[in-house]
């Protein structure tokens, strides 16, 4: 006669500082799963209505900077996947898809920060850049893209970055 097994709920408390593992029936967040690089289908599902903005941004970048290329990079389970937009070997910006929008992250050196101050980008972005912490690589600015106006700002910032 086969022996039936019975599931027993553990009454043991977890150790401090030890995270409980994820439930096995919950699929991992694809942007934090290093086994599979994000593809267009995943981007479409995450970005939804803002996918055409990414398509427009890619097209305009290719027109403005013929040597531009994309490179996905996995930064570990904590940070997940980011796409680097490169001009040759130089980082232009980082791209991260979010739910219904996407984020572009720039790093500007001192000369580029001065050029951004003189540019036509929105004052709030200039303020964010001015107030960001200065690192050895420069100052960071994140732009959340939800509209064509945001795409315009990203293109202007990409031009500043390229010239400086």
Q: How do the helices and strands line up, and which of them pair or pack?
A:
Elements: H1 40-47, H2 51-64, E1 68-74, E2 81-87, E3 90-98, E4 101-108, H3 110-118, H4 123-131, E5 134-135, E6 138-145, H5 148-163
Helix pairs in contact: 2-5
Outline:
By secondary structure, this protein is an alpha+beta fold.
Compressed to H and E, one letter per element, the order equals: HHEEEEHHEEH
Q: What CATH architecture do you see?
A: Alpha-Beta Complex
Give, in spatial order, the strands making up the sheet with the most strands.
1-2-3-4-6-5
Q: How many angstroms does the end-to-end distance come to? A: 78 Å
Low-confidence stretches: 1-12
**Number of extended strands:** 6
Structure class: alpha+beta
- Rg over CA atoms, rounded to whole Å, is 21 Å
Principal-axes shape call: globular
Output mean pLDDT: 88
Described by strand count, sense and barrel closure, the largest sheet is:
6 strands, antiparallel
Instruction: Give the count of structural domains.
Output: 1
């Amino acid at each position: 006669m086969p022996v039936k097994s019975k599931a027993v709920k553990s009454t043991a408390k977890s150790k401090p500082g030890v995270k409980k593992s994820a439930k096995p029936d919950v699929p991992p967040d694809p942007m934090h799963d290093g086994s599979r690089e994000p593809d267009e289908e995943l981007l479409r599902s995450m970005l939804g209505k803002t996918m055409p903005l990414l398509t427009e941004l890619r097209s305009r970048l290719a027109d403005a900077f013929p040597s531009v290329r994309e490179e996905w990079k996995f930064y570990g389970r904590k940070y997940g996947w980011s796409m680097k937009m490169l001009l040759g070997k130089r980082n232009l910006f980082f791209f991260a898809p979010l739910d219904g929008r996407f984020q572009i992250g720039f790093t500007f050196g001192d000369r580029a920060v001065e050029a951004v101050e003189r540019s036509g980008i929105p004052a709030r972005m200039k303020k964010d850049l001015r107030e960001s912490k200065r690192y050895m690589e420069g100052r960071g600015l994140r732009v959340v893209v939800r509209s064509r106006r945001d795409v315009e700002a990203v293109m202007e910032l990409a031009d500043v970055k390229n010239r400086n």
